[in-house]
């Protein structure tokens, strides 16, 4: 006794999604076929459409339907700051703060030996080319503060140093509204180590 | 600053999958477009194929590519026992035990008012028609022992009683290899209540 072949194929195909194991894939397939056929149809079409329409911005490497993404094409952005992030979501999050008006470069990943992602899997040449275009003066290494993100930031600083660029990293410290008692020791130690002078003190 | 429209459409389409919220949908879309385009292609095709090929067995209601599923078409199965389960996965699990050679009926769901699934959303008429075909003598109500499953079993027993069928429910009790100390009080109480005579005792 087995599932019909096309059901098994669907269950197996759903496992390409990150974080979806055999049990969830089965549950998803049942749900789509039993309760949401229009949703399944929509998903199939969205996949096809995205595959045929989405490429990478030739300048910042983020997902884009046009050769140049909207942000890179915006003449109002500062051309001398380049903020390097891991994923497009990081760029969206930073844009949400409305506190940065330079440009971005999206790595589409991070160095992660455990996942088999090494320097060759990141667009380092494209980044070097972009950062050394003559207009960029500061590169903000805004990879995550995880082990992988820190390793990536280090590798990027090695890649870009010695070309007269200012390389910066976002500050670590307590979150706005954060209380010392509820901050992890690592962050607290870092915040103490990177303490800043107080004006008027 | 936004995602390209076809990326946003894909993220929104992925949310038809049960248990997938906005963050996972975004992560899935990034993964597919960045790291597994062949997988995305495969998923789109599997969805289309399953949608066009999979229907329901006219006898037991499970997913099937043929009018009659392989199990219902098997003449070696006992025709007088009908085991009613919630989902095809339950049928597969029971088949795996190799301890049942009757037939099945798959509800494709359970009564679940919280999810908006009432009696009209289950194939109760189809079940009644199937159970009262004259060959069936025992109906085993094998819905889950959850609140929804118990409610469903009760509704099914109301539906099928008074027609001379033997209605049974699977036994509750300790699992094989189970220890009293590590069994929850509800199961323990039920196991005590449903204790059986010991032969030779």
What is the CATH fold-level name of the largest domain in chain A?
Answer: Dna Topoisomerase Vi A Subunit, Chain: A, domain 2
Order of helices and strands of chain A: HHHEEEHEHEHEH
Q: Care to count the β-strands of chain A?
A: 6
Strand content of chain A: 5-15%
| Overall number of structural domains of chain A | 2
* Assembly state: homodimer
- Supply the number of helical segments of chain A: 7
Query: What is the CATH architecture annotation of the largest domain in chain A?
Result: 3-Layer(aba) Sandwich
What sort of overall outline of chain A do the alpha carbons produce when their principal axes are compared?
globular
Task: Give the C-level CATH assignment of the largest domain in chain A.
Answer: Alpha Beta
Class from secondary-structure proportions of chain A: alpha/beta
- Low-pLDDT parts of chain A are none
Zinc finger (C4-type) (chains A, B): 57-72
Domain Toprim (chains A, B): 80-175
InterPro entries (chains A, B): DNA_Rcmb_RecR, Rcmb_RecR, Rcmb_RecR_Znf, TOPRIM_dom, TOPRIM_RecR
Pfam families (chains A, B): RecR_C (PF21175), RecR_HhH (PF21176), RecR_ZnF (PF02132), Toprim_4 (PF13662)
Task: Characterize this entry briefly.
Chains A, B: GO terms for molecular function: DNA binding; zinc ion binding. Two copies of one chain form a homodimer. The first copy, chain A, has about 200 residues and is α/β, with parallel strands linked by helices.
